[in-house]
Amino acid sequence: MQTTSTTLIVIGGGPGGYIAAIRAAQLGIATILIEGDQLGGTCLNIGCIPSKALIHASEEFEKAKHYSHGSSIGIQVSTPSINIVQTISWKDGIVKRLTTGVGALLKKNGAQVVKGWAQILDGKTVAVMQDGKEVQRITCQHLLIASGSTPVELPFMPFGSGSGKVISSTEALSPTEIPKKLVVVGGGYIGLELGIAYRKLGAEVSVVESLDRILPAYDEDLTKVVKTALKQLGVEVHLGLTVQGLNADENAVRLKNAAGEESELACDKVLVAVGRRPRTEGFGLESLMLDMNGRAIKIDDQCRTSMRDVWAIGDVAGEPMLAHRAMAQGEMVAEIIAGKRRHFTPASIPAVCFTDPELVVVGKSPQEAQAAGIDCITAMFPFAANGRSMTLESSEGFVRVVARKDNHLIVGWQAVGKGVSELSAAFGLSLEMGATLEDVAGTIHSHPTLGEAVQEAALRALGHALHI
Ligand code: FAD
Ligand code: NAD
């Protein structure tokens, strides 16, 4: 059996791992990335990219259906139909192009990719397994764990149960047909992004959330706009209910409310989206006896674990489980190993939910600023007063800014509305650059764009908005 020696081993080729490997190789560090499945990880194969492809297809189909009922802008189409098998094949084509691209980038930069499952033997030695057999042993100076996360299963309703009715996001992203009735368990990111997409693709969708509100990670001023949109779209939302399992005929989900009353919701498929958990088991990680933070590997602000020269990034290191956070950590760890002085202390990690309308939060909400003892000014500008929104037939939602009262330093942005995900770059930049309300208000924003609502929110916070 072959034994190889390198400077850095990266376990996992998701956005955290592949970015770390590319950057390390760019910096001249001998790097081997071990991936047991597909390069690109959850994000490219079964997460961010395929979900946004399905959301896009569902939006286009919905638009065509909307026009078939007649439209105010004069477009008429006959009743549209969708070939979901072709849609999925289009989505798979995008995934293939991107994963092939990741392989090419790793190669171009000089990082070596080893196909197989990494089994950690100690902090400096990893066995590569194929079909349960060790095919290679690699020793290293630095070990970077980027093994990602897996969907949380409900023990009484595991994935695949109910004769395959109970599915995770992975199966939901590759349907062969659209179910008539879809029950979604969990009103968080995945439940609502995919629940809305399935509704637009023609399913009757019911979302069951155990808390008393949807999207608990976002503040209620934002989520109530989504709640209204869900109602208009015909997505049923059941709050404050716990799922008990499938009924005996496996054609309905049993529910219980806080008073202990039971009810049932008919289903053809059940998408369970109740969170993801760090992937820490089954590859010898336990042998390192690392300090843990709940189920996640505990890291410091340089992504160091409790063992010297063992690093962890991305979902395996806990919340927020977002691809851009994993990538930023991966780049940083590579630079630290190369001798640069870096710390993971971003001004903010933007969060975007690709519901319809979309949500963006960057930095502190008014409530978070208040809780942090910051005396703040808050102002919002509605898209109803933005010309571009009107031309896009979407005037729901708003942009809100939160800034310190004393020096007008911006500490947070929130937005809800069509297409606001693209505003997250401007929001993030303004926080990272330490912009004040005057900086944003004094920047010429192109007309007509949604971005003008950003400038107007800053102007409004200063007391002199121009279009409201
Ligand atoms: P992963 O992407 O999970 O990659 C880990 C890799 O490690 C996998 O390829 C796995 O095969 C490999 N691996 C694990 N163990 C081993 C081993 N022992 N040996 C070899 N290889 C191993 N985030 C966003 O920011 N925006 C979004 O829009 C978004 N949408 C999402 C939609 C869905 C449906 C899902 C499920 C997730 C979404 N996410 C989104 C979250 C995002 O996918 C994750 O935060 C991101 O992929 C984490 O990157 P990672 O590198 O930490 O891990
Ligand atoms: P989530 O944490 O976003 O939402 C889970 C929801 O399920 C919560 O609202 C929770 O209260 C609810 N819940 C938990 N147990 C329940 C139960 N037994 N019955 C009913 N409801 C229950 O998790 P998710 O939607 O599975 O997504 C996982 C992670 O993937 C996200 O936290 C996020 O980090 C990432 N993700 C990000 C994006 C994005 O950035 N746009 C999109 C999809 C996924």
UniProtKB/TrEMBL annotation:
Domain Pyridine nucleotide-disulphide oxidoreductase dimerisation positions: 349-458
Cofactor: FAD
Note describing how the cofactor binds: Binds 1 FAD per subunit.
Sorted UniProt keywords: Disulfide bond, FAD, Flavoprotein, NAD, Oxidoreductase, Redox-active center
Domain FAD/NAD(P)-binding residues, every copy: 7-330
InterPro entries linked: Class-I_Pyr_Nuc-Dis_Oxidored (IPR050151), FAD/NAD-bd_sf (IPR036188), FAD/NAD-binding_dom (IPR023753), FAD/NAD-linked_Rdtase_dimer_sf (IPR016156), Lipoamide_DH (IPR006258), Pyr_nuc-diS_OxRdtase (IPR001100), Pyr_nucl-diS_OxRdtase_dimer (IPR004099), Pyr_OxRdtase_I_AS (IPR012999)
SUPFAM superfamilies: FAD/NAD(P)-binding domain (SSF51905), FAD/NAD-linked reductases, dimerisation (C-terminal) domain (SSF55424)
Major enzyme class: oxidoreductase
Catalytic activity field: N(6)-[(R)-dihydrolipoyl]-L-lysyl-[protein] + NAD(+) = N(6)-[(R)-lipoyl]-L-lysyl-[protein] + NADH + H(+)
GO terms, molecular function: dihydrolipoyl dehydrogenase (NADH) activity
EC annotation from Swiss-Prot or TrEMBL: 1.8.1.4
Miscellaneous comment in the UniProt entry for this protein: The active site is a redox-active disulfide bond.
NCBIfam families found in the cross-reference section: lipoamide_DH
Stated family: Belongs to the class-I pyridine nucleotide-disulfide oxidoreductase family.
Protein name: Dihydrolipoyl dehydrogenase
Source organism: Undibacterium amnicola
